[in-house]
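--- STAGE predict ---
source: upstream dedup step, 1 unique chain passed
mode: sequence only
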Amino acid sequence: MDGALAGSIGTPLLWGVFAAVVTVSLALDLFVFHRRAHAVRFREAVGWSAFWIGLSLSFNLWIHLEAGGGPALEFLTGYVIEKALSVDNIFVFVVLFDYFAVPDRFQHRVLFWGVLGAIVLRGTFVALGAALLSEFQWILYLFGAFLVFTGGRLIRQREMEVHPERNLVVRLGRRYLPVTEGYRGQRFLVAEGGRWLATPLLLVLLVMEGTDVIFAVDSIPAIFAVTRDPFLVFTSNIFAILGLRALYFVLAGLIDRFRFLKVGLGLVLVFVGAKMLLDRWLEIPIGLSLGVVVALLAGAIVVSWLLSRDTQLSEGDGSTG
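--- STAGE serialize ---
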């Protein structure tokens, strides 16, 4: 397997650089650039998406300089996998924001605090996964089988089916939390009538965090398929999540055009799951793994885009005929 579980490149220096980069970036994001609630436009989202991708690649370069090309390639592969899987989150976010009628100017705030919760959650999952793999090597095959099963289910799934009204968090929140009728600006809690009330924005945040648990169950084992180093698993996962907010505002209006992306994501999960299952008998080089993942995702995107364009052209011809 690429990367030994026992030996991590996570030196105090690397952990310190990672923590500093994430802390400063989030502080600038919340307290400088997005201090005032506003609707994030496409051009701004593209700029922020480029910023987060550039930051991630810069950190990858730092890993290369400090630990060598092997760990850097493992980080990059894990980052690409998690970045691709995070697109699935965007499908859910679109439905959630529409269902709760979240105003555009408040969406970034929900996503920001959702990312903070996801960082804590992913850290817990990575630590648990590393501990399990260290003690029970057979867990590797359980992870692999789970990923193959999940990938196959994703391939067969034609459309994203999200029903917020059936969500357990929504039902429990509405039953046990006193929730205001409407939004109160960008606040999650307000004091009214001598008691604290949750706003619908808090309910959206709670649903988002609950949904992330499901996505983490897929993404964390997928990255363990390419590296056993907890530092690389955690940092590649977090850097991909940090750019999720900007990616949402870039792709939210285009998500219907990526109709075959789910098939590509499913194939990626099947591939990394099979890599785990066959690891004892067949070692797939990390460079080849990265190439396969990129090829599957690129193929799904190209096919989706071409078919979407053909559909638009045929509809245009029909409307003028």
